[in-house]
Specification:
- The chain has helices at 16-19, 71-79, 92-97, 108-112, and strands at residues 23-24, 26-31, 37-42, 45-49, 54-59, 81-86, 116-118, 125-127, 132-143, 150-161, 166-167, 170-171, 179-181, 187-189.
- Strand 13 (179-181) and strand 14 (187-189) form a beta hairpin.
- The strands form 4 sheets. Strands 3-2-6-9-10-5-4 form a 7-stranded antiparallel sheet, with helices on one face. Strands 1-13-14 form a 3-stranded antiparallel sheet, with no helix packed on it.
- The chain has a single domain (25-189), classed as Pnp Oxidase, Chain A (Roll).
- The chain is globular, with a radius of gyration of 17 Å.
- It is mainly β.
- The protein binds flavin mononucleotide (FMN).
- Flavin mononucleotide is lined by residues 25, 38, 40-44, 58-61, 63, 70-72, 96, 99, 101, 181.
Length: 201
């Protein structure tokens, strides 16, 4: 089949986010100017540069108590910082619990029973047991086409790696099994890894 998104797909569910898969999940922790901690998963997330290291995530809707966006973007507007926590398979249920549409004054760390630690470089909490966490200083928030679509870019200024993830000097994802988002309500996890050398290696 072929469809133009502007004309509709005619399927029971939108296939778009099942086409671009698997997507890594950026579990974004932020803190409001009032000190309120916040945590939410975003699968429109990726790394976008090495030097300096930079990441992005996209927020695609709004909450009634936040005007034109969600709590994560609203907090980053206030403070200019955020932390990206990497999600392992073992944390799938608490990650999911943290995605609930909760009032702005609810702390998802407490709501989902997730232990937190302070970040080192920024005034923000991080998921204490996450396999990795990237402390970020926001560089740009870009409003893209659509009512509530915002892309947040950040420079990574601090990196936490859980001790058991380092094997012979490499960040070994088989030590924790990364969780990724598929379409609909589906997820996958990384269990098989193989190497391909580039032609000019
Ligand atoms: C695995 C997963 C991935 C998600 N990815 C996104 C995303 O990329 N963009 C988005 O706007 N919402 C996404 N959501 C929904 C948000 O997590 C949800 O709206 C959350 O309540 C936002 O929290 P906040 O208002 O504290 O930022 C995702 C939810 C889940 C469970």
């Amino acid at each position: 089949m072929f469809y133009r998104p502007a004309d509709g797909h005619g399927l029971p569910h939108n296939p778009f986010n099942a086409i671009v898969t698997p997507r890594p999940i950026g579990w974004i922790s932020t803190r409001g100017a009032n000190g309120q901690n916040n945590l939410a998963p975003y699968s429109f997330f990726n790394a976008v540069a090495y030097e300096p290291p930079q990441v992005m995530f996209a927020s695609t809707a709004a909450k009634e108590d936040r005007g034109d966006t969600k709590d994560s973007v609203a907090n980053i507007r206030e403070t200019g910082v955020f932390c990206v926590n990497i999600v392992e398979y073992a944390m799938r249920d608490v990650m999911n619990a943290s995605s609930a549409a909760l009032p702005r004054d609810v702390d998802e760390f407490a709501h989902a029973g997730i232990a937190l630690s302070p970040c080192s470089e920024i005034d923000c909490a991080r998921v204490a047991e996450a396999p990795a966490a990237l402390e970020c200083r926001m560089t740009q928030i870009v409003q893209i086409k659509g009512a509530h679509n915002h892309v947040v870019f950040g420079e990574v200024i601090g990196v936490h790696l859980r001790d058991d993830t380092l094997v012979e000097g490499r960040f070994d994802v088989t030590t924790f099994t990364p969780l990724s988002r598929m379409g609909y309500r589906d997820y996958t996890r990384v269990t098989d890894i193989f190497e391909l050398r580039r032609p000019d290696d």
